[in-house]
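ingest -> validate -> predict -> emit
validate: passed (alphabet ok, no gaps, 447 aa)
predict: started
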Amino acid sequence: MPPKKPAAKSAGGKKKADDDFDALLAAAVDSVQVVEKKEKAPQSKSAKATEGSDAPTAEAVVKSSADHPENPYPEVEAGQTRQTWPEPTVLVSKQFAPRKFPTGEITAHPLECNVFRQSSEEKRALERATETEVMELREAAEVHRQVRRWANSWIKPGIPLMTICDRIEKKLEELIGKDGLNRGQAFPTGCSLNYIAAHYTPNTGDKTVLTYDDVMKLDFGTQINGRIIDSAWTVAFDQKYDPLLLAVKEATNEGVRQAGIDVRLCDIGAAIQEVMESYEIELNGKTFQVKSIRNLNGHNITPYQIHGGKSVPIVKGTEAGVRMEEGELFAIETFGSTGRGVVIEDLECSHYMALPEASTIQLRSDKAKQLLKHIDKHFGTLAFARKWLDRTGQDRHILHLNNLVEAGCVLKCPPLVDVKGSYSAQYEHTILLKPTAKEVLSRGSDY
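emit:
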């Protein structure tokens, strides 16, 4: 093939050469863009599967469904919706027929004077009269069971405490069908670590992370129309803490067994302490007796008030003249410690609660008045967390909140701590003293 003749050096020829160069440059740019698009295009599922990357893929994500092979929830009646797994997404109210929520653990009241109750038609009639309230409690209890079952499936070392509390609270609101003060959380989620026995939840900005060596008390409450379920358990990853957890769990179960109509509160405390302090735990080559924390107690619960006025001791020698009564709702909770067995208030406060008489107290500060109005609207007399104020538009609240505390409108509930370096555990159940029998509403397969 003969060589091409050189182009003539005329103005027209120069223009043609420039045009040819521009065309070649444009083609080269187009080819580069095509290659880049191919590189950036999403890979097919099969291509991702063969890469062996540690990053989770779309195929690796397990979708929650009622038909999941490991779904722990039973089949439901026709017209109801079975709960999903591994993440529960179905309202508890949609899983059961109206007024057919799961019954708690039913046991007879102790004492000879209560034997007649199970066969008494009068007591049965009284029980039927309170069926609506009982069903609200049972629904709230089932929400608690389902939330804690789910939480236990993913809580592990390395997760920030803020994330743990936020996820639990979000799931609680989802499963209970959050509706203002009618349905929702009864108090902030406690996640107290180690020597901190109670009343700790992270404030905004808290970066604390759960570790393998921590002992964490998880305590949260559910409520429907002010009917509160208060229940707690302890999470520990290292088996060396098992004797501590067992001591407290068995002490709580003993308190539940002893409780009943006409039972003296002091007798329950003595029985709890006897069981608790029969246990020992060895840590780092040193043996510790598990001690009941003497200035922490169980309590009765009234509508929208977590502490109704009666205390259930966990040591002997207190509340000698007070008895449990028919129809009362109690939280039986025990705390065991490797420390002194006495707690004090310490650290930054996160838990607060408006008092029933708050609206009758005169306030000078308009900002404090506005904050109190906000608290009354969103929380009423239920306990609340500072982070909840932040997230409902009250992010500059601390000065005015302190004013409300000083005025007696709001109760401050700081963390309760034993000596640093000690470890504490907690277990808690809510029981209802029905006319015919005792119902452990919060009992589950876990504790």
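The first helix runs from residue 11 to 40.
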